Batch of 4 targets.
Target 1
Amino acid sequence: MNRLTVYDPFADVFPELFRNFVVQGRSEKNGNVDIRIDVKETEQAYQVHADIPGVKRDDIHVDVDGNLVSITAEVKRDNEVKEGEKVLRTERYRGSMTRSFTLANEIDESQAGARYEDGVLELTLPKKATASARRLKIA
């Protein structure tokens, strides 16, 4: 059986440097947090629960365009370590995270609702009433 190997020109030169960079770049330690979602469907609506911990309600924006839903959150994190009156270390992270997804049905934007509590964004996205098909009479 043939074995397929991927050639990485930097693996021999900087094996640990790039490996750690890729792994740490997506970790929650560095402030890069993905928006994790659960989507449930009923006959009338979609229920979406999105985990967005540590973000203020005013920093979350939800856009609905037809059947496309986009959630954007501005992330601001400060970490300051003090010892007595001296500041030993201050770390700040500013950035944004976005999650977009498409649903099977169009959403009735006028009836949609959102609630944010304890780091969880809950969206109620009612389905738009579908126009019934009709047969045309040929004259």
Note: The beta strands are 36-41, 45-51, 60-65, 68-83, 86-102, 113-117, 120-126.
Target 2
Amino acid sequence: MKEGSKYFPLYAFLQEHAGAPVSLTLAEIEQLLGTRLPGSARTRVGWWSNRSHGAVQAAAWMDAGYHVVTVDLAAETIHFAKAQLTYTVVRQGDTVLWNGRMIKAMRQQLGLSQGELAKELGVRQQTISEWEKEAYAPSRATSKHLALVAERAGFAYETGSESP
């Protein structure tokens, strides 16, 4: 988040809270920004979505390490919480078996949409969605490719127990 950006004051405010949950009214956010929010911020929950691309406002909270967890437009209150995904790493021999939570955590750390990660891996966006929902898991070959992408991007993960 660049200093001078319209939403930089929100970013700075959240940075000061070091990951503690934060609830702000729309009026408080406007006071921080020194300007009014667009009308869609009051009428569309989607304006507050945690999108990694195409939403300057989302970069403010996501770059500060937060996600919007609750939007109450009736009460004009937004609840932010530390962005955190937990996952367990399982290996089969020398291969990390990627699960949905790991894939989503890596994708979010890289700032990629499901479609962008799909393009990187040569699969469909729907495949990434199904992996993240754990409808099914990546093959061993794809798991190796995921590990290479993670290594190249600096996505660190801890090794858990081995699976037979």
Note: The beta strands are 22-25, 66-72, 77-82, 90-92, 95-97.
Target 3
Amino acid sequence: MRLSTIRKVDFWLGVPLCLVLDFFSLLLSPFLSRRRTIKNILLMELSEAGSLIIGYSAIKRLKTALPEANLYFIIFERHANGLKLLDVIDPEKILTIRDSSMGAFLWDVLRAVWKMRMAGIDSVIDMELFSRASSILTFLSFARNRAGFYAYTNEGLYRGRLIHNYKVAYNPYKHMALNFMALVETFLGDENGVPNLKRHLPETLITPFQLPPSAARRENGAALIRSKYPQLTPQHKIAIINPNAGELPIRAWEIENFAQTAKRILDSGPDRLVVIMGLPDAMNDGLFIERHVKDPRCINLIGVTKSLGDVVDICCVSKLLLTNDSGPAQYASITPAHVVVLFGPETPQLYSPLGANVRAVYSGVSCSPCVTAANHRNTVCTDNQCLKIIPVETVADICLELLAR
């Protein structure tokens, strides 16, 4: 389903369902009070592939603190491979939901509820930001312990009071890695304050995930590039460009800017290669850059990568990735590649990839960020000046500096 469809379903179906379930939640609350016998924990992050990377430290903290507990995860099917890369959840304990159509979505939701009941889930940690679907699924698990973000007195997206055990205050002034850690620490601490957690969480709690070195990944990444550029050698310095912003085109830097940056990279030395990467629906962007650059060292791999694993493998043999704020930025950050990520409608304060190899470029105009959890990432803006005012010279100079290291 398209993002616009998901928003409509979440509102027109989610709001009345949350309202009805609120009534049942009130009736059942005496029977669903906290119980600290924890055996089977379900984590939930349906729609944000990049958030899995940001949430790694929190998941690892939970696994370390409760080594005897079984960890389950529920996620959209198209993001499941990204979760498997982190190697923190047993693949057999990953429950998937298809969002390819409304029928598939509803069927898989029912199937997931059945599997939760069969697995004896006693605790749920909802990592979604104010999604009504995840709130409903959390309640339908009938878990005794339910942790999730809660609005308290903040106006925002209504999703009922279905997460009533561990209500965690979402903090838009702290990085999402710390927000996810607050979810886990609230759950582990079993405190009764309002909001539940009243402790300082230092940034030192966050340990960015890094893929272990893998010759197989490097070989696959090189093979994918050689499929379009057989002359590839270990001496080439590869810069990946991901010009597409996926389902939120408001987050895209202008394609002409990417093309000019690619040309400047190639002009900086004969050992430079530019690899254009993206999903098949970004093919026109790739063709535009190719036509502008007119250089055989500009290699179009859009549509060639078949999985997040392929994306990661190409990053493993590349010097850097230049991208809009999107999932590939997060997945590149777990590789040795440098990541240059362009922010506009969202802020790096919340969503910048983690690690020393990341360079966030952000103009910080007065109306940014306008795409937030509170508005379902739905903005009225149709002219993203926050990205347009970022000059090619600034971005190209950063890329050239990193390539020269």
Note: The mean pLDDT is 91.
Target 4
Amino acid sequence: MITATQSMEERSAELENLTPEEAVAALLDAASDMNASDLFLESNVDNVSIAVRHLGIIHPFANLSNAHGRRFISHIKAVAEMDVAERRRPLDGRWLVFTRGGDKLDLRINTIPTLHGEDLAIRILECDHALLTIDQLGLIRAQRTAIVQLLNRPSGLVLVTGPTGSGKTTTLYSCLQTLNDGKRKISTIEDPIEFEVDGFRQSQVNQKLQLDFPELLRSVLRQAPDIIMIGEIRDRITAETAVRAANSGHQVFATLHAPVAASAVQVMLSLGVNTHFLASALVGVVAQRLVRVLCPDCRVAVDVSDSPYTFDDIRPWMEEPDNHHLYAPGGCEKCYGTGYIARTAVFEVLTVQGKVKRQIAEQAEARQIEATAVDQGMIEFRRAALLAVANGTTSTEEILRTVPFDYLEDE
């Protein structure tokens, strides 16, 4: 049995002695046991390397001979109903599979031609994975209160921002599940649909049919929804339609690529949205970054009692105000020697009201909007990240790895 605790050489030798069918099944079992999010097979000059992404970090897993590696890739393409003979063009496929432990996995597969052959990437989604509630997202109490107030608004646009892979869709699902009481029609437009949820009317983008977010959004609006979730705003038509829908009485939730909450306004304006329409429609922005959670069995306490003012800026929100420790990663068998055992998010929750609305209408800079929001009680990334460190959730090193330094500076 292939396991994460074996050496890379042991895993490589064992995989070489298995048939492609057996080896792929063993790989998926190991990836599922690790809670890996992605599996990669990459063609090199003298081998095909296998790597996994675990808690956002890519780890080398095994190396195969070129011949054996190509057979692996061909097998995966065949079961995913992809064209096995096509190696010159990118391909997409999907495969539903059960692991040895009985978990059902939804595998989203992509191949791309590279210098030395095909690379294959597998996105691993657990079909039976329970949706997180708002309480499980990692929000500070004040942030949770702000989000609940946004959800209780009868209409308006709520944007969830952050880089790719920062958990934006998970946050959207959590928000929508809170509203999923059977009394309102909830329609989603996704690429791809990550989880099937009872009570949601879910539609998926299909590029082959030229069915993208703008086309689906126009059609969804004719279905008379109360709540609309847009997987991503990435063009002018989708942005304008989302704003119009929010101004016409719908609750609209969407993701957007913006570094911090306040900069979402500039991104929307850059897409061509009317300034005054945006100021009227936008009710809130949630920005987030994923950080790894320290393993409680091996984390190492670091005494900071010689620096008693370290946490002064965040003490009102600390779980233990008198805490004088922060923690560093250790490493044990439970966390596969990484020092981290899960992931959570750090957030900014910007409520758009009063002066902030006026600043949006006046096209103020992101820094001005952020300063106003902080004056009104927003916990920005700097303090949210420091709170995660102070509460023992994560380490300083992890914060510096995931949150750009510009947003950690105290101005």
Note: The mean pLDDT is 92.
